[in-house]
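Hello again,

I reread your note about wanting to compare the complex against the isolated chains. To keep things tidy I'm splitting this into two emails, and this first one only covers the full assembly. Below are the input lines as submitted, including protein chains and any nucleic acid or small-molecule components. They are followed by the predicted structure of everything together. The single-chain runs will come separately.
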Amino acid sequence: MSSALAKIEDFPSDPVEFFKEILQAAAKGHPDGFLQEMNLATVDEEYGVLNRTVLYRGLTPDNFVFYITHRYTRNFKNLQANSKACVTFYMPDVKDTTGKDSSWQVRLIGATAVELPQTEMDALWAKESLAAQIRGHICPCGEPINYDELKARHDRFLQEHNGKSIARPASYTAWKFQPQRWDFLKVGLNEIADRVQYRLQDNGKWESMHVAT
Ligand SMILES: Cc1cc2nc3c(=O)[nH]c(=O)nc-3n(C[C@H](O)[C@H](O)[C@H](O)COP(=O)(O)O)c2cc1C
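Full-complex prediction:
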């Protein structure tokens, strides 16, 4: 049996830079392609809180985490009604410079969701996979469906659009998150985690500190 205290060393003054460093290290273990998911929690009138997994799509030009969705989803409607959100990333098996594995959890606490302008959607839509583009047209998210009917609709859509470009539906959209705090937790096997938290100050600067796990 062993026990140790994890330590987060040499973290940059900007939390987004720190996040990028960890993502880069996480991607190293997946040279054939790397997708990063994130968990998004929203305020929901019916359930109080509702969370789900979404795909992390990168950073906006002004350095905020963003994801893509459709206006007919509950996550969109939740954020439209109440822009408060929390986002969690989990990155297991991230090697540090000495080759030691750690798991990281990165949280955007007290985030405000801001919808990206529609002028930015064409470029994002063009990069979507064929499946994602078709889904945007044929799936009534959250509604009960009959598999055979949906499959027939999918196959017909695929055939009709064979080789043609697929128009971006008006429902396609994206949200960025402006957090009050960034919370980074690092832990290895048989270790007590270390956490570094960045807190946004009134002057717009980030204050960073270790906090207990
Ligand atoms: C790996 C993975 C990635 C996903 N990515 C997205 C995404 O980027 N955007 C999205 O709206 N839903 C995504 N989903 C589906 C959501 O988890 C969710 O089921 C859907 O958005 C409806 O959720 P809601 O009812 O809370 O709105 C993803 C699911 C998985 C498992």
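For quick reference: Residues 37, 50, 52-55, 67-69, 73-75, 141-142 surround flavin mononucleotide (CB under 6 Å).

B.
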